[in-house]
Every structure is written in structure tokens, then in C-alpha cells.
Amino acid sequence: MPADVVARELLGRALVRRIRGKRVALTILETEAYLGPHDLACHAARGRTTRTEVMYGPPGTLYIYFVYGLHWMLNVVTGAEGEPAAVLIRSAGGVSGPARLTRTLRIDGALNGRLAEPGSGLWFETGKGSCKAIATPPPRIGVDYAGPRWSARKLRFLVAVAKREAR
DNA sequence: GCAGTGATCATA
DNA sequence: ATGATCACTGCC
Fold this sequence. Notes:
Number of strands: 8
Mean pLDDT: 94
Low-confidence stretches: none
Largest sheet: 8 strands, antiparallel
Number of helices: 4
Shape: globular
Distance between the termini: 32 Å
CATH architecture: Roll
Radius of gyration: 15 Å
Order of helices and strands: HEEEEEEHEHEH
CATH topology: 3-methyladenine DNA Glycosylase, Chain A
Number of domains: 1
Helix content: 10-25%
Structural class: alpha+beta
């Protein structure tokens, strides 16, 4: 599925992590879509490399990478096998910021390339009730390197209520 | 505002 | 082997 579609659908769903047998579930509040090789902000735009390899896996594959020498980023692959598109989970359960989220849930490279399956280390569940994304999505964060055309694209998605609370 | 921190990738 | 870059955070 296209990453922007999945990015919207993930809003309001539960991100579930198993930590030493304990279950921790957080409601996803913010996501970003990375559409594929043609999207210059997408890592796959730089080709198929060691790092991006897992993006070419089946949908549901976790793409977790390390940036700035400090932070782990959690993504889930959305494209069919061979089509590198993914969604970055930026915030969930009131934990804002993608790196703080992974730190909270103890997510690191050990999960990279694994499938997000129920009962595994990390998976997604349908949230209860409906959840509206804000009408006009804002642009993605930290992707200026992709040039104005792609950095301005409205591919960041937030739960509508989260926007009000964030004020 | 900007330092910190190290994997990754291009270049050689 | 070297250097630039980086889908960020926390502190100034």
C-alpha cells in the first residue's frame, strides 16, 4: 500500500511492544510517509544499500535505523516486496518525538528487518473508536535536504485531537 | 541557538 | 582511509 495511506491508517491504532514479557501499548498520534525511490526524502532514493535493504522486504517489515549517533527511528514498510516505501512513527501515547518513542519502548536495531506480527516483539493493533487525522497535514520534519519540492510535501499526519492538546 | 555522537555511504 | 551527512534531542 502507498505509505501515505498507511500513515493515515496507523493514526489511533495501538503500537504494542513486548518488553520482558510485559505488554506496553501506546496510541499512535503522529506519522510520516516516505513514498519510495522517487521521493527524494526517502532513504530509498539513494538506492538499495545495506541500510535500506529491509525497506525492500514485505509490508509489515520493521525498518529501524540509527541516526545522529544517538537515536533509533522506528518505521514500518508499506510497499509490496521490492517496493521500498515506509512510515515513520513519530509519536505515540503522549511520547512526542521519534527518538524518545524508541527509547521509551526499548526499540533498537535488534528488531530491524523483523515482521510486525502479533505476539512478536512489536506489532500494531486496531485502536478502539474512530480517529480523525487533521484535515491539512503538515510537512515532514528534518528533510530539507530533499529540496523544496519534497520537503514541502504534506506527508506528516497527526491525530486531530492531538493537535488541540499540543497547543 | 547548537553540541553531541557514531553508523553509513561516497570518494579514493 | 577519510570526511560529510544525518527522518533528533536536550540544554543554552
